[in-house]
Specification:
Keywords: Oxidoreductase. The protein has about 250 residues and is α/β, with parallel strands linked by helices. It has helices at about 20-30, 45-55, 65-80, 105-135, 155-175, 195, 200-205, 215-225; strands at about 10-15, 35-40, 55-60, 85-90, 135-140, 175-185, 235-240. It is about 45% helix and about 15% strand. Helix 1 (about 20-30) crosses helix 8 (about 215-225) and helix 3 packs parallel to helix 4. The termini are far apart.
Length: about 250
């Protein structure tokens, strides 16, 4: 049996939150597979630098800005003439802390960035290209969407909503568009530094695969879902967590 081609040569992809961490690794993986990549993030200098390094294009802005979705879609279509892959990676983990302390505006911001923005971007992609030509959407969720934990109530709740949104869109947009999600465990990113840096060795020892994740681990999963190799996969959530969900059965080596 031969390995399937990713089939992404000449296809166009938009990646949000694409200048660092998981988003940067995803954009790099797509570009390396032959895709034309449009990146976006809030820092204009980082967007320009990332776009230049990947041989793609970029647009600085916040996904919380309602007009940004349309401008981003128009840029990709104007430069590439198509929009085949959309990766909704941009996210916020604020407000961090007990939900009883969560201010209304911070709560709304979490859902605007983590849930509404992906929906609005899918709407733009669908109306401008994908409804007629097809495509694929990958939402970056989290392994933590399936359970509760201290201080991450807003993040986990909003990502659980994104997980549900993924399935809903998969059902509504098929067969033209496939919609899936990737749910990382603890990954070595700046956003999650406060979680992994203080006790990385202990955390890694408790995982069946013996280490925390790297952005590239998640990027490879996104790349597969975006590719023709996953052409019969939609509405799925691909967990990339080093065995976090099964660690209760793991017996660490002495």
């Amino acid at each position: 049996m031969t390995s399937p081609s990713y089939g992404l040569e000449g296809r166009a992809a938009v990646v949000t939150g694409a200048t660092r961490g998981i988003g940067r690794a995803v954009a790099q993986a797509l570009a390396s597979a032959g895709a034309l990549v449009c990146v976006t993030a809030r820092d204009a200098d980082e967007v320009r630098r990332t776009a230049l390094e990947l041989g793609g294009i970029g647009l600085a802005g916040s996904v919380a800005d309602p007009g940004h979705h349309r401008r981003l879609t128009e840029l990709a279509l104007g430069e590439f003439g198509r929009l085949d892959v959309l990766v909704n990676n941009a996210a916020t983990n604020q407000p961090y802390g007990p939900l009883m302390d969560a201010a209304p505006e911070a709560w709304r911001e979490a859902f605007t960035v983590n849930v509404e923005a992906p929906l609005r971007l899918v709407q733009c992609a669908w109306r401008s290209w994908m409804s007629e030509h097809g495509g694929t959407v990958i939402n970056v969720c989290t392994e933590g969407a399936g359970h509760v934990g201290p201080n991450v109530g807003a993040y986990g709740t909003s990502k659980a909503a994104l997980l549900h949104l993924t399935g809903q869109l998969a059902g509504e947009l098929g067969p033209r568009v496939r919609v899936n999600s990737v749910s990382p465990g603890l990954v070595r990113t700046e956003m999650a530094r406060f979680m992994w840096e203080p006790g990385e060795l202990d955390i890694a020892a408790g995982l069946p695969l013996g280490r925390i994740g790297e952005p590239e681990d998640v990027a490879r999963a996104v790349l597969w879902l975006a590719s023709d190799a996953a052409e019969w996969v939609t509405g799925a959530d691909l967990v990339v967590d080093g065995g976090t969900r099964v660690r209760a059965a793991h017996i660490p080596a002495s």
